[in-house]
């Protein structure tokens, strides 16, 4: 017996610590999500045949969600503002999966037009009979310093990222409550966990989403099969920087910069689907140093300011040099 305890102490405990350390240093997701990706349910097994509504499905993460979900055999409702883009995504889904035309509903929707959300929800339910998973993905980012930014931009960010999402959720949730089952997954951001320079309004809207969904989850404890999840990605390849708000409402960003250094969209979405298949409540998905930084932020917020200042200074420097703000944090910015 004593031998077993000594064996456990000498070999098992250090091994567990080593695994944690490796996850910590090399992982691109939080412990729960990485663990689920190693030993949990496979999205292909859990999501097959489910009806999934994806907002913001015309580009970036939403578009990739459509492709990977269709390969898993999920039936899809694709929403964003541009119908033609959604039709293109649908064609690609049909080409690369076994889904039939009727398995994918193109449902154009503007998150800002809240008066239309009830009718859109009814249309989705009418087509498939029910909705299993809502993925609140549509949204826009921001690249501008607070002192230079109009308050209208803050209003627009809250209207789109926060109220647009709350509104769709408000219409879908009663349907899921009636069935006592379903998942509402919301794409927040690491900017919803910690502060981020050049994104005071964006970060506020994502913090608002975190607060909203963490609170909503506590109101739904009598529905154990109703899952509320938030996803917090770090920088991921997409059109997010091209589409970001700047100092003024309709002013486009001068240069979006190279996005190559960011996490691939496919890796981010794969991890999201693993999280959804395993009911992970909060998913952190980011390359280093972002992931480590957010652990530090959660465990020792005061110490985190030391790291925050280094990253923040670099982000503003990159922005002022005309680069994408998230260009390398460890080299000098080059403008030429
Ligand atoms: N890419 C990243 O680095 C990153 C990091 C963290 C979080 N996110 C979040 O991921 C989500 C998807 O962003 P992305 O990176 O794929 O960017 P993206 O710009 O490529 O896609 C955004 C999607 O939202 C849609 N959208 C924008 N305004 C809309 C409106 N008024 N009504 C309906 N749809 C609208 C766009 O049409 C598009 O389909 C966003 O919520 C974003 O905040 C992205």
Q: Judging by the overall fold, what is the CATH architecture?
A: 3-Layer(aba) Sandwich
Radius of gyration (Å):
21 Å
Low-pLDDT segments, ≥5 res: none
Question: Strand order within the widest sheet?
Answer: 3-2-1-4-5-6-7
CATH class: Alpha Beta
CATH names the topology as Rossmann fold
Describe the overall structure.
- With 336 residues, the chain is an alpha/beta fold.
- Helices cover 50% and strands 10% of the residues.
- It is globular and about 60 Å long.
- The protein starts with a helix and ends in a 16-residue tail after the last helix.
- Strand 2, helix 5 and strand 3 form a beta-alpha-beta unit.
- A 7-stranded parallel sheet has the order 3-2-1-4-5-6-7, with helices on both faces.
- The structure holds nicotinamide-adenine-dinucleotide.
- The site of nicotinamide-adenine-dinucleotide has 28 residues, from helix 4.
Sequence-ordered SSE layout with sheet pairings:
Layout: H1 2-26, H2 31-39, H3 43-46, E1 51-55, H4 60-72, E2 75-79, H5 83-96, E3 104-106, H6 117-128, E4 133-136, H7 151-179, E5 182-187, H8 200-219, E6 226-233, H9 265-277, E7 282-285, H10 290-299, H11 301-320
Parallel strand pairs: 1-2, 1-4, 2-3, 4-5, 5-6, 6-7
Helix pairs in contact: 4-5, 4-9, 7-8, 10-11
Please provide a brief summary of the model:
The chain crosses the membrane at residues 6-26. The chain is α/β, with parallel strands linked by helices and 336 residues long. The chain has helices at 2-26, 31-39, 43-46, 60-72, 83-96, 117-128, 151-179, 200-219, 265-277, 290-299, 301-320; strands at residues 51-55, 75-79, 104-106, 133-136, 182-187, 226-233, 282-285.
């Amino acid at each position: 017996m004593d031998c077993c305890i000594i064996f456990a102490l000498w070999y098992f405990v250090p091994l567990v610590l080593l695994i944690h350390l490796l996850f910590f240093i090399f992982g691109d997701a939080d412990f729960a999500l990485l663990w689920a990706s190693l030993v949990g349910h496979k999205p292909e097994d859990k999501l097959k045949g489910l009806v999934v509504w994806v907002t913001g499905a015309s580009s970036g993460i939403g578009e990739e969600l459509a492709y990977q979900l269709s390969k898993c055999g999920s039936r899809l409702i694709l929403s964003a503002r541009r119908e033609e883009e959604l039709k293109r995504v649908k064609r690609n889904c049909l080409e690369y999966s076994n889904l039939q035309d009727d398995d994918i509903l193109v449902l154009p929707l503007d998150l800002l037009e809240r008066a239309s959300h009830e009718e859109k929800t009814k249309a989705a339910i009418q087509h498939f009979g029910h909705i299993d998973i809502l993925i609140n993905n549509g949204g826009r980012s921001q690249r501008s310093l607070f002192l230079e930014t109009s308050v209208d931009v803050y209003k627009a960010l809250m209207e789109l990222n926060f109220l647009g999402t709350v509104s769709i959720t408000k219409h879908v949730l009663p349907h899921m409550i009636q069935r006592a089952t379903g998942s509402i997954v919301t794409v927040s951001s690491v900017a919803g966990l910690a502060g981020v320079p050049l994104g005071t309004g964006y970060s506020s809207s994502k913090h608002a989403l975190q607060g909203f969904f963490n609170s909503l989850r506590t109101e739904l404890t009598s529905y154990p099969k109703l899952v509320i999840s938030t996803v917090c990605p770090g920088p991921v390849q997409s059109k997010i920087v091209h589409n970001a708000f700047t100092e003024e409402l309709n002013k486009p960003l001068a240069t979006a910069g190279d996005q190559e250094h960011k996490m691939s969209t496919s890796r981010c979405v794969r991890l999201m689907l693993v999280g959804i298949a395993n009911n992970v409540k909060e998913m952190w998905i980011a390359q280093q140093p972002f992931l480590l930084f957010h652990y530090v932020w959660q465990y020792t917020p005061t110490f985190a300011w030391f790291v925050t200042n280094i990253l923040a200074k670099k982000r503003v420097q990159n922005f002022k040099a005309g680069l994408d703000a998230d260009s390398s944090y460890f080299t000098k910015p080059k403008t030429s």
